[in-house]
Automatic annotation (TrEMBL):
<dbReference type="GO" id="GO:0008703">
    <property type="term" value="F:5-amino-6-(5-phosphoribosylamino)uracil reductase activity"/>
</dbReference>
<dbReference type="InterPro" id="IPR002734">
    <property type="entry name" value="RibDG_C"/>
</dbReference>
<protein>
    <submittedName>
        <fullName>Dihydrofolate reductase</fullName>
    </submittedName>
</protein>
<dbReference type="Pfam" id="PF01872">
    <property type="entry name" value="RibD_C"/>
</dbReference>
<dbReference type="InterPro" id="IPR050765">
    <property type="entry name" value="Riboflavin_Biosynth_HTPR"/>
</dbReference>
<feature type="domain" description="Bacterial bifunctional deaminase-reductase C-terminal">
    <location>
        <begin position="3"/>
        <end position="186"/>
    </location>
</feature>
<dbReference type="GO" id="GO:0009231">
    <property type="term" value="P:riboflavin biosynthetic process"/>
</dbReference>
<dbReference type="InterPro" id="IPR024072">
    <property type="entry name" value="DHFR-like_dom_sf"/>
</dbReference>
Amino acid sequence: MRKIMTGAFVSLDGIMQAPGGPEDPIGGFRYGGWAAPYFDEAMGESVGEMFANPFDLLLGRKTYDIFAAHWPYVAADDPIGPLFDRITKYVATRNPEFKTSWQNSQALGADVVGALKALKASDGPDLLTQGSTDFLQTLFRNDLVDELSISFFPVVLGRGKRLFGEGVFPGKLKLVSSRVSGTGVTVNKYVRDGDIVTGSFEFEQPTAAELDRRRNLT
């Protein structure tokens, strides 16, 4: 059984659009590259750890296009480019005519959810997402993500594509590791932890004021 793992750089207000550069101005986004000034040695180590175990990439088409125009062209001694080149890249696209341009790449086809379920049930390395905000919403809505590595950056962006949109499948997560970089980025790893558990801080016997408040709600 293969796991789907999400890797994301996220602002404090939940935005993950174009962290590495201005290549995604969709929606009038003006802050492409907002994550770059926060990278230090600790951030480099956390990224290295994310790529340390065997994995295949799982990408939305826009992120695939960005990666395919960059990583095959880096120097041979780059720590990421040759790795991305040789692993399998699975691409989610709504375009039935889409042709992959990067070696070891394949489209997931028209039934993306069905293809993902089949991949999860197959043998092979885990599946790691990078970027792919729109595609992530499909994963979250269909409860397909097993593990999240989220780096929260100390910046508020105000608008842009968000990690979690409407219709996310509800569930509880368990924090299994956390570290803080020298630039104030918190790098957190979460795994699924069952259904949401609720509780209440209310008095066992509501006050008269509370009962009035409830009546006013209706």
